[in-house]
Specification:
Strand content: 5-15%
Largest sheet: 4 strands, mixed
CATH superfamily: Glycoside hydrolase 38, N terminal domain
Helix content: 40-55%
Number of domains: 1
CATH class: Alpha Beta
Order of helices and strands: EHEHHEHEHEEEH
Number of helices: 6
Structural class: alpha/beta
CATH architecture: Alpha-Beta Barrel
Strand order of the largest sheet: 4-5-7-6
Number of strands: 7
Length: about 200
C-alpha cells in the first residue's frame, strides 16, 4: 500500500489585480480561518504558507495578538513558512538578490521557529542556472517549480556546472487553474519532501 500526503497551501500575491490592502484583508480572513481550523482539528496536519515569510508580517500588522499562536504552529510544523522572504521572480533579479531574499526569509523564519527546507518557487517566469548552488548553500536539497520551464518530467535533477544539484519537482498544471493541478502540486511537493527526508 502506498501513502499519499496532501499538504494544503495557498499561493499568495501581495498585490496584483487588487490593491495591497484588498489582498491583505483576504489574507487576514484566510489566516484567521486557518488558525481556527488548527485549533479545532488536531488531525489537520499542515498548511504551507506559499514559501514566503512576508505574509506573516502582513498578517501580524492586523492581528498582532496572534503572534504566539502562529509561532506555536510553525514550531510544531503545522504551518510551513519560508524559505524566502518573498516569492522570487528569478528571471528579473540577480543571484545576489536571491541570496539576500533567502537570508531575510531564513532570519524571519527563525523568529517563528523554523523554515521549510524546500526551494519553493512556483511563480517565476524564468530560472537562473545558479539557483541549485544557492539553494544548496542554504542547506536545501530540493526545489519545486512551475513556470518558466520547457517540458520537463515531473521530477528531475537541476544541476549547476559546479556539480551543485537539487531534486526538483516540476508542477505541470498550475494549482490555481485546475483541480488536477491542485492534486499534482501537493503530491509533488510532498514527494520532494519525502525524498529529502527533511519534512
Amino acid at each position: 500500500m502506498k501513502t499519499i500526503h496532501v499538504i494544503s497551501h495557498t499561493h499568495w500575491d501581495r498585490e496584483w489585480y487588487r490593491t495591497f490592502q484588498q489582498f491583505r484583508l483576504q489574507l487576514v480572513h484566510l489566516v484567521d480561518g486557518l488558525l481556527d481550523m488548527l485549533a479545532k482539528d488536531p488531525n489537520y496536519k499542515y498548511f504551507m504558507l506559499d514559501g514566503q515569510t512576508i505574509v506573516l508580517d502582513d498578517y501580524l500588522l492586523m492581528r498582532s495578538e496572534a503572534e504566539d499562536t502562529l509561532k506555536e504552529h510553525v514550531r510544531n510544523r503545522r504551518i510551513l513558512i519560508g524559505p524566502c522572504h518573498i516569492l522570487p521572480d528569478m528571471f528579473l533579479a540577480s543571484p545576489e538578490a536571491h541570496i539576500h531574499n533567502l537570508l531575510v526569509g531564513e532570519r524571519e523564519a527563525r523568529k517563528f521557529g523554523q523554515k521549510m527546507m524546500i526551494g519553493y518557487m512556483p511563480d517565476s517566469f524564468g530560472h537562473i542556472g545558479q539557483m541549485p548552488q544557492i539553494l544548496r548553500g542554504f542547506g536545501m536539497e530540493n526545489a519545486c517549480l512551475w513556470r518558466g520551464l520547457d517540458d520537463q518530467p515531473a521530477g528531475f535533477w537541476w544541476q549547476f556546472p559546479d556539480g551543485s544539484r537539487v531534486l526538483t519537482m516540476y508542477l505541470h498544471d498550475h494549482p490555481l487553474w485546475t483541480a488536477p493541478g491542485i492534486y499534482r502540486s501537493c503530491v509533488m511537493c510532498v514527494l520532494c519532501a519525502v525524498l529529502s527526508g527533511k519534512q
